[in-house]
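Run Info leucine-rich repeat, immunoglobulin-like and transmembrane domains 3a through structure prediction, thanks.
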Amino acid sequence: MYRLLVAQVLLSCWSVAQPFCPSQCTCVYHGRSDGTGSRSVLCNDPDMSDIPVNVPLDTVKLRVEKTAVRRVPTEAFYYLSELRYLWITYNSVTSVDPGSFYNLKVLHELRLDGNMIATFPWESLKEMPSLRTLDLHNNRLTSIPVEAAAYLVNITYLDISSNKLTTLPSDLVDIWPPFSGILPSANASQKIVLGLQDNPWYCDCRISKLIELSKMASISVVLMDQVLTCSGPENLAGVLFQRAELDQCLKPSVMVSATKITSSLGSNVLLRCDATGFPTPTLLWTRADGTAVNNTVVQESPGEGVRWSILSLHIITFKDAGDYHCKAKNVAGNAEAYITLSVDGVQTSTPSPPLNITKRPDDQTVTSFPGTRTPLYTTLTPALTTRAAMTTMPPLTTRKSPGPGGGIQRSPPAGDKPAKIQQSKGGKGSMMSEKSKKKVDLKDIEVVEVTSDTAVLLWRAEGLPSNAPLTMFYFPYDAKDDKETVDAEVGQGKLLLEYLMPNQVYTVCLVAKGSVSGKEQCVDFTTLDNGEEDGQNKVLMIASGIACAFAVPLIVVLVYKIICLCCKGNRSRNNGPDDDLSKETYVKFETLTMKQRTLNGQANDLWARRQTQESERMLLCSRSSIDSQMTYKSDSSRSEYLC
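Sure, done. The structure for Info leucine-rich repeat, immunoglobulin-like and transmembrane domains 3a is below.
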């Protein structure tokens, strides 16, 4: 009896030690001859509405299929650290929490096909660094964000077919060869499999790379279905990707002002890059190692399909030398150009005279220089280092200054005219320079012709010759440290300031070189806003249109009147005076029937009587017909002519 009791207890403990399997699932252990094995769990109960939480910890493959599960909660598989295959297929899943796949470090395959997922948490893929297969086939995805590209770099099998996708971000296509720029690995048999079919693709520039990818052969990207068709626009509806031609897409083309530039140490350098393409590309400056440039960058797009960018390097040093890459990018492709900057400068060091080192009997070191009688008592350090003093050149400027004749000229660099320094014994040179300083009076400083990015500075100086140097510096009102300096001459009287920021308050000052400190004259001005210039241009255009609307009809009417008068004068000269006389002198008469008129007739018998002269009778008789000359006359009436 005792032995039976012990056996029963052992059997109970053994059953407890076995992993527990959920009631609605089937657990299968696949053992091997070497004693190892793997466990797979299948949950396909139609009444299951939640992800099971009591799955054995050694599960390698978990399948949840054809259930009523509608949501994948946070950390649903936290304890399944050995899980490699997770299939949640053909359920009713509509939402996936961003933390659902936390702690799945060795997961290799994730399948969520056959659900109703409209938005997928792409950021959750970073919790699965070993993931290579992602199946989202037959869901309701409408778009894939640009941020998803960073999480799909390691995916070699991606199925997003049978969704509602109309486009893909260009950055996502860039992670696949040949757009990724990564050379084929030694294992050429490794392919990237993509499922893109059965989506309503809208064939425009946004998927131009995808269309180009479908036309390529012998690449490491394999499409599950080569028959990809366009659903829009109307002129491309039903057209295969291989036959689609996009007329409105143009890859970027990059041009630089110069491929190699050499500039002096401490100068200012402007690097310009121009790009064309459709849609209008974006420009990015980087160094040769791919790091972004932290210097000031100005970009502008003067028109559709064109963009330029200027990189400003201030007071360059030897660290600024190297290659600067200008990268242009749009949805149709990428392009790149580079500029090599060389810094020209001299590193000088002050040579020290040779040291004469001797030792005294008391072991004290004595150091003396040649030409000196008194020895110097010094303590030598283990190593003597001499730092090279770097010579710096004044910064170059690209500001324009008008010459004496009023024309705009480029102002010379400040380093082109170094000041001459004369020294003499006992400081006589410095005393003479102080005496030779003249009092400079700057008057009538004003800023005119201000636009959004330029301004013209006018001044009048007294007390200096016309070729005397002047220094002008300007800076934003709230940033005094960002000073820009331009050298000019007194006789110019005018200077053009360029590359200003719109709608910004600036302070500009003039000071004569060599004058007493604090004698500079300053003035403030504000640049115009781009919108104001556009408004002024619109007003001018509207006024010109109204003037044209009134002037053109007036001109037409005047021309018409002049033509009519000319035609009438020509016609009068051609007809002559006889025709006019015949028209104005003779009249036509109708013949009258012979009828006796009574003086006492009825009221409705109306007769016209007119006293005529004898000349008129003769004239009328000469033109009347025979019948009118034989008009009936009564004895009691006189001759009358009736009409």
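The longest helix spans residues 530-575.
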